[in-house]
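Reminder to self: tokens first, then the designed residues, so the page reads top to bottom the way the pipeline ran.
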């Protein structure tokens, strides 16, 4: 059966490649001409007052500006970059992480779909993307564009109580002169929520909401390779279909290739701060390819000096990486390094706190919300943080909703935040950070800005008004999106140990992979239990917990073993039998959990272990608070 499936897969690869060549590359079609954006000295840009200001011209910001303009708002789009498109056109992230519903239909419609239908596919030519973004903005007479700013700062004033009112922005040009622009609504579409942070919105950075200090997801420098012919691409496709390198998450079509993870795992970097993963390859119309694979670890994304050092490290490592690719990847024996992206690809930085904060449980329980304004379904894909943790897939949702409240920041009125730095927990962000979701939040923000001004209410009041939210959803549907209720149950939610799984999963200590397989009824190893306990004590336990060094004995894990470990963390000197009796006398154990362990012959399953770990952390917190 497996052999037959692989033959079908190989056939589909060949057909896909040949059809793609025939339609796109063998035609030798002309390169698209780049549209010209509105010049900065256009009379409308000289105005100082607008209905809406959008800061940041990444795809999310473009969607927000286009949406605001289409909803009748005189809109100013501002950025420090010299061209539109941000991560896609300057970071060269030219492969789109698509979101589909369980029926295979694209979830993110509206403005994102308009963009997607004008580029080459799930991988695109950077020039095409720039052309499309320019044209989308040029087509809206209500949009004025101001690019290449030196600095952009928020203009705020004190409101009632401790609330800060957003009044607009101050833009400093390259010549050092400053201009002030005012608007009743500002949308922060910068990658790092820079305007929100400067205005006083509370936020967490990277994984600190889980208790991890100074732990950052790797940044990437996308690089360009030349020297790949059509037949080289064909050879690459054949190799991806082979048993040697093809896994469940490798493949190829006419514009994209992904895989070779096993081969790239053999690469030995010259600097331990640099690593590579499997290759994500996107074709360009000039015959070159862009490769997203190079990681630089331990980089604070908000520190300009560290970002500059990361770029230096990546550029120094690239000749070795390209040489390794040339020697080991089928179809890439003649490649040469052509260029590197102007900007680093930074996956995670700030996460603002909004009226609601999206959680990992929201994502993996496929939750809908009454104020849904966008949907996601991309796996929670946590990238590498160092040479020892190369990343994981926490789980794969069927579909979940983004509440409008995630765009409404705490403490500052007149402001919305869209994109990856919206109000998402770090783990939830692992899915919600992708560009189609970000563009959907941008479109919703632009429409919400218009509705709030029409209704004469603040954005915060709008987020709490069910009738206005229903009107916002109606307008979004009218404007090309598809906002409608859904219900998909996650099977693991029915398991008796689900509460324990949720507790451990919130700290990123358990992963279900693409199939959401948590193996709750399988026995847990002693080593695995000790590792999770150690991390949970550090991340979630009270400060007075001891930090004992526990050793793996090699036996099957029992409740007496766990009792001994728990009492060691409390600083108690007991043997296993004494520890078990002590916790019994403390009424620590959940009787239902003990019964499940007894029914399993006294051996501890993963589900039972997660329940015990949850109970232990809660127990020690209560004792510490007394």
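Designed residues (626 positions):
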């Amino acid at each position: 059966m497996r052999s037959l499936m692989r033959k079908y897969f190989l056939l589909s690869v060949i057909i896909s490649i040949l059809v793609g060549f025939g339609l796109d590359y063998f035609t030798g079609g002309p390169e698209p001409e780049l549209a010209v954006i509105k010049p900065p000295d256009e009379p409308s840009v000289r105005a100082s007052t607008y209905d809406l200001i959008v800061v940041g011209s990444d795809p999310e910001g473009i969607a927000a500006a286009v949406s605001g303009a289409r909803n009748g708002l005189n809109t100013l789009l501002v950025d420090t970059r010299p061209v539109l498109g941000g991560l896609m056109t300057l970071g060269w992230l030219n492969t789109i992480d698509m979101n589909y519903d369980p029926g295979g239909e694209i979830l993110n419609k509206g403005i994102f779909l308009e963009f997607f239908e004008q580029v080459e596919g799930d991988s695109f030519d950077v020039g095409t993307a720039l052309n499309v973004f320019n044209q989308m903005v040029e087509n809206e007479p209500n949009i004025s564009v101001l690019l290449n700013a030196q600095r952009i700062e928020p203009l705020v004033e004190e409101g009632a109580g401790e609330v800060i009112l957003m009044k607009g922005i101050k833009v400093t040009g390259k010549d050092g002169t400053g201009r002030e622009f005012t608007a009743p609504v500002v949308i922060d579409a910068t990658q790092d929520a820079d305007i929100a942070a400067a205005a006083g919105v509370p936020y967490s950075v990277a994984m600190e909401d889980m208790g991890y200090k100074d732990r950052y997801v790797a940044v990437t420098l996308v690089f360009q390779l030349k020297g790949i012919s059509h037949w080289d691409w064909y050879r690459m496709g054949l190799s991806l279909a082979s048993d040697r390198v093809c896994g469940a998450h490798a493949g190829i079509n006419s514009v994209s290739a992904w895989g070779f993870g096993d081969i790239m795992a053999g690469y030995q970097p010259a600097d331990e701060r640099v690593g590579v993963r499997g290759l994500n390859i996107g074709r360009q119309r000039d015959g070159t390819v862009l490769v997203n694979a190079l990681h630089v670890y331990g980089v604070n994304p908000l520190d300009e000096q560290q970002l500059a050092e990361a770029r230096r490290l990546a550029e120094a490592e690239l000749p070795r990486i390209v040489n390794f690719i040339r020697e080991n990847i089928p179809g890439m024996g003649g490649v040469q390094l052509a260029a590197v992206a102007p900007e680093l690809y930074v996956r995670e930085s700030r996460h603002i706190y909004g009226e609601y904060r999206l959680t990992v449980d929201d994502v993996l329980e496929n939750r809908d919300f009454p104020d849904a304004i966008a949907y996601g379904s991309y796996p929670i894909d946590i990238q590498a943080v160092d040479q020892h943790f190369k990343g994981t897939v926490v789980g794969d949702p069927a579909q979940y909703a983004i509440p409008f409240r995630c765009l409404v920041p705490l403490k500052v009125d007149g402001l919305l935040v869209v994109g990856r730095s919206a109000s998402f927990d770090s783990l939830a962000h692992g899915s919600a950070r992708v560009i189609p979701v970000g563009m959907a939040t941008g479109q919703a923000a632009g429409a919400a800005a218009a509705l709030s001004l029409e209704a004469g209410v603040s954005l915060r009041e709008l987020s709490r008004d069910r009738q206005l939210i229903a009107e916002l959803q109606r307008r979004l549907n009218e404007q090309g999106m598809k906002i409608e209720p859904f219900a998909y149950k996650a099977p693991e939610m029915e398991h008796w140990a689900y509460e324990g799984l949720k507790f451990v999963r919130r700290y990123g200590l358990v992963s279900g992979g693409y199939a959401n397989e948590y193996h709750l009824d399988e026995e847990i190893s002693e080593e695995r239990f000790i590792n999770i306990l150690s991390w949970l004590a550090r991340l979630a336990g009270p400060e007075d917990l001891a930090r004992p060094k526990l050793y793996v004995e090699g036996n099957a894990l029992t409740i007496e073993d766990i009792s001994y470990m728990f009492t060691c963390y409390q600083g108690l000197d007991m043997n296993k039998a004494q520890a078990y009796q002590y916790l019994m006398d403390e009424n620590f154990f959940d009787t239902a959990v003990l019964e499940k362990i007894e029914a399993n012959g006294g051996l501890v399953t993963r589900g039972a272990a997660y329940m015990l770990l949850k109970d232990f952390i809660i127990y020690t917190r209560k004792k510490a608070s007394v």
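The longest helix spans residues 304-328.
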